Amino acid sequence: MSIAALALCVSLVACSGTGEPSSGADPTVTSSATPAPEPSASSAPSANSGATTPDEPVAKIERAGHSDAPTVKADPADTSDAVSYGDGVSVRIDDVSFGKETSQGPGSFPGREYARLTITIDNGSSDSIDLGTSVLTVLDASGATAVRVYAAEAEVTDFAGTVAAGKSATATYAFALPVDARDEVTVVVDFDGDHTSAVFRGGLD
Questions:
Q1: Which domains does the chain have, with CATH numbers?
Q2: Is the distance from CB of 98 to CB of 115 less than 8 angstroms?
Q3: Which range, of 51-65, 119-133, 175-189, averages the lowest pLDDT?
Q4: What is the pLDDT of residue 6?
Q5: Which of 65, 95, 69 is nearest to 80 (CA)?
Q6: CA dihedral 55, 59, 63, 67 (to 10 degrees)
Q7: What are the C-alpha distances in Å from 155 to residues 137, 150, 189?
Q8: Which residues of 56-88 are buried (b: 16+ CB within 10 A; e: fewer)?
């Protein structure tokens, strides 16, 4: 081999060795996932999975700070009577009236018949009662839950705030109840975590 050819070979070998070095492994990708936040406790009432009984046809809702079962109990009453508790608290249906929805627009049901119930809680106990988580339920004769009505013409006002010892609180609720469903209903007033719900059975007239 000539000296010129040998020099050319050496030059080619040198050039081929100047490429980028291989790491021999794929690059590693790391991620720092942010853990999902823990759910926070809420003071709002939530549905309770507790069992129902003839005297408690609707399970009590769960309330913050009230993990135990209610300790103050009362028997169901007719819709024309009051539900009275041993600590001096009583609940009654003060007034019942009827109407038809007339509001127009999204979420409205013009012509739907409703029953409007005015409920009064007399606090004859020695402690104030927080009514801020009160829930009212009406069941028809088949046990189906009547739909709440919020139409402006129904003029509803929910229980709210606290009723002091020796004072009373009144609220008005409306439910979609046609004429033929008013003779046999169950009204359940779940107003706090210390008392069992006030249960009324009978007709609305």
A1: 82-202 (2.60.40.1240)
A2: yes
A3: 51-65
A4: 41
A5: 95
A6: 80
A7: 18, 8, 19
A8: bbbbbbbbeeeeeebeeebebbebeebbbbebe
